[in-house]
């Protein structure tokens, strides 16, 4: 009789650990399944990468704001097609507005734009026009050409093809350009030509 009582007590103690044993077994099984899944479902290294568009947009506007609610970037387009490889967004009739924390404003437009690098880099193609608005340190500056790259997170406009720069009444043309829109400084290389005009005379009051 005493032996039977001891057996029942031992069985009761063992029953208390059954849920823990079951949970441990399930956790171990899940861990094994996660580790074994890549081997159970091997990927085909020769599988072709998807190149056809995976989504499209029509008459869209994308806006970015800073922590204070100030508009820092706006991208508009008539249509856009995303290509998963090489992860580019091709935009028709693109319009860009960008403003940094110093208040420097840039607007740009072109027939086509290609967005890459997490929407920080835009390659503008066809009838490109970009305007860096005047501020206390830099006069209004206009750029015109057929191809221009806007690197928004670096406040830069870069071109490797001929481009025209108008700064107030002065006009420059060059083969290449690296324009820092934050400071207003630009580097021109190649065949650089300039037309410098005197500042417009202020009207004098009659005697």
Characterize this entry briefly.
The protein has 207 residues and is an alpha+beta fold. It has one helix spanning 2-40, and strands at 55-65, 71-83, 88-99, 105-116, 121-132, 141-151, 156-159, 163-167, 170-174, 176-180, 186-189, 193-195.
Whole-angstrom Rg? 32 Å
Number of strands: 12
- Strand percentage lies at over 45%
Number of helix segments?
1
Binned, the helix content reads 10-25%
Low-confidence spans: 37-41
Apparent shape: elongated
* Main beta sheet strand tally, sense and closure: 12 strands, antiparallel
Structural account:
- The chain has 207 residues and is an alpha+beta fold.
- It contains one helix and twelve strands, in the order αββββββββββββ.
- Strands 1, 2, 3, 4, 5, 6, 7, 8, 9, 10, 11 and 12 form a twelve-stranded antiparallel beta sheet that branches.
Which descriptors apply to this entry?
alpha+beta; 47% strand; twelve-stranded antiparallel sheet; 12 strands
């Amino acid at each position: 009789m005493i032996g039977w009582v001891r057996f029942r007590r031992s069985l009761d103690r063992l029953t208390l650990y059954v849920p823990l044993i079951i949970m441990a077994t399930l956790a171990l099984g899940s861990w094994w399944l996660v580790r074994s899944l890549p081997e159970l479902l091997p990927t085909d290294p020769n599988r072709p990468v998807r190149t056809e568009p995976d989504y499209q947009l029509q008459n869209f506007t994308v806006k970015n704001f800073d922590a204070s609610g100030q508009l820092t970037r706006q991208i508009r387009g008539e249509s856009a097609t995303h290509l998963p490889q090489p992860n580019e967004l091709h935009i028709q009739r693109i319009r860009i507005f960008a403003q940094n924390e110093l208040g420097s404003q840039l607007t740009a437009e072109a027939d086509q734009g290609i967005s890459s690098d997490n929407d920080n880099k835009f390659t503008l193609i066809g009838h490109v026009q970009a305007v860096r608005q005047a501020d206390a340190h830099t006069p209004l500056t206009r750029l015109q050409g057929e191809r221009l790259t806007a690197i928004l997170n670096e406040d830069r406009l870069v071109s490797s093809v001929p481009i025209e720069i108008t700064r107030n009444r002065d006009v420059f043309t060059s083969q290449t350009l690296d324009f820092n829109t934050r400071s207003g400084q630009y580097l021109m290389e190649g065949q650089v030509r300039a037309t410098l005009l005197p500042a417009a005379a202020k009207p004098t009051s009659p005697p």
